[in-house]
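FORM 12-B: Structure-to-Sequence Request
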């Protein structure tokens, strides 16, 4: 009977060690998951910022197209207009291109 008690004590000790290892792995995995969530949130924020920047660029391009169409119509109505392929004004698109080239 003493041998049975010792065997149960040894089994209990082994199981407690296994449980401690499992708890340690669980804590490690929870920490890693938390870090990944923070990293994913950061990436999502960056994507949202890029999306907002793209939306502003698209809006600027639409405005530029509208402006160029207006100039084209105005020049087509003028008898002595400058060449139609040259626009001498710094447009928002040209300013954006200059800013990008400077970076």
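FORM 12-B RESPONSE
SEQUENCE OUT:
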């Amino acid at each position: 009977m003493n041998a049975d008690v010792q065997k149960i004590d040894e089994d209990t000790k082994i199981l407690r060690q296994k449980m401690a290892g499992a708890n340690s792995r669980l804590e490690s995995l929870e920490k890693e998951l938390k870090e990944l969530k923070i990293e994913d949130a950061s990436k999502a924020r960056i994507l949202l910022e890029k999306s907002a920047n793209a939306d502003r660029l698209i809006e600027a391009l639409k405005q530029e197209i509208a402006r160029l169409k207006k100039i084209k119509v105005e020049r087509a109505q003028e008898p002595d207009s400058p060449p139609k392929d040259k626009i001498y004004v710094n447009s928002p698109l040209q300013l954006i291109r200059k800013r990008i080239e400077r970076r």
